[in-house]
Specification:
- This is 3-keto-5-aminohexanoate cleavage protein.
- With 352 residues, the chain is α/β, with parallel strands linked by helices.
- Helices cover 36% and strands 11% of the residues.
- The longest helix is centred in the first third of the chain and has 14 residues.
């Protein structure tokens, strides 16, 4: 991304899009019973509360009534339908880490292992986005958490949950990724790229150059360590510089890194994500902060910067919801990448 003179002036920046991640799938309901929704009605109401607080993108992970993460497509369908009815302008972004389990023996006979993940393309009503990881990668979400971050929770250091998340990996090989993007695009679902580093961004660019990923580059830089980049200014600057001018970039981190990174995003004209999936604590770690409180905090800070908050319609325009491209040439041009080299062409490539 290029930062010209005046790029930091709020009048030259897009309105701020706030993504809320209020469902916290890594936590047990007992970790924060005041804010972790369990029943379907509670989960829908949480979306409403986030929207009214100022969030226009909702990162969705569903739970069953027993508090466990849901692996049922039918439950996800119910949740999405309920949120669509109550928050029709909100961008619904389903977390791509979900792997649906067959709900009866007939399904078990039909579904292959990869198909249980591809079933994200079969959610009805259709969500606006599904997140996707690129390149199989370690995702040790607890690596940069300190003992105080998880003390007294189900992820306390040495607990079974802590040890499981410490060993977590994301399977995202090239064949599966390309097929998944194809299926999502066929259903009119936008791919939202959750990227750990520049190498993964470069893989996305190569897919676009081959014409197998003809979508807007809407992405999040996930700076959580543990196989992902650390949230420091050097990594951030390198990643932002690698993003083309047509991309839409959100920053994400974890625990007490979340607010400082979001403040950088607000100042730079980028977009933000918050919620208990990312952080449970106030900056003094003297109390837990609800997702709504975190959203309200970012709204206040952004307005102090002079940057207004996008409403639902504006967020959809910024995120290019419903936009797909016909081929590699259009994809590269619209996202701000240089065009592919023509046969025999020498020197720099430029769009005509």
């Amino acid at each position: 991304m290029n930062f010209l003179d005046g790029s930091l002036f709020p009048e030259n920046q897009q309105k701020l899009v706030i993504t809320a991640a209020p469902y916290g799938p890594e936590w047990e309901p007992s970790d924060f019973p005041e804010d972790i929704p369990v029943t379907l009605e509670q989960q829908i109401q949480k979306a409403v509360d986030c929207y009214h607080a100022g969030a226009t993108v909702l990162h969705v992970h569903g739970r069953e009534d027993n508090g466990k993460g849901s692996k049922r497509l039918s439950r996800t369908n119910e949740l999405i339908a309920g949120i669509c009815e109550c928050c029709p302008d909100m961008i619904l972004q389903v977390g791509g880490s979900i792997s649906f389990a067959p709900e009866n023996e007939g399904d078990a006979a039909k579904w292959l292992s990869d198909d249980t993940r591809h079933m994200l393309a079969e959610i009805k009503p259709t969500p606006d986005q599904v997140t996707i990881a690129i390149n199989t990668n370690q995702m040790n979400v607890v690596e940069q958490m300190c003992a105080a971050d998880v003390h007294g929770t189900s992820l306390q250091v040495g607990s079974p949950g802590y040890n499981a998340y410490r060993e977590m990996t994301i399977p995202a090989g090239p064949e599966w990724v390309e097929e998944h993007i194809r299926r999502l695009s066929e259903k009119g679902i936008q791919t939202h790229f959750q990227l750990a580093n520049i190498a993964q961004l470069e893989t996305v660019e190569r897919m676009m150059r081959r014409g197998v990923c003809n979508v807007p580059l809407i992405l999040t830089w996930v700076a959580i360590g543990g196989g992902f980049e650390a949230p420091n200014i050097y990594n951030l600057a390198n990643f932002v510089r690698a993003c083309p001018d047509g991309s839409v970039l959100t920053l994400e981190s974890s625990m007490l890194n979340t607010l400082p990174l979001n403040m950088m995003a607000i100042a730079m004209g980028l977009h933000v994500r918050c919620g208990i999936e990312d952080n449970l604590w106030s900056q003094k770690r003297d109390r837990k902060m609800t997702t709504v409180e975190q959203i309200e905090q970012l709204v206040r800070i952004s307005r102090e910067f002079g940057r207004e908050i996008a409403n639902g319609k504006e967020a959809r325009e910024i995120y290019k919801i419903g936009t797909f491209y016909k081929d590699a040439d259009e994809t590269l041009a619209q996202n701000g990448f240089a065009p592919n080299r023509k046969l025999g062409q020498k020197g720099l490539t430029l769009h005509g």
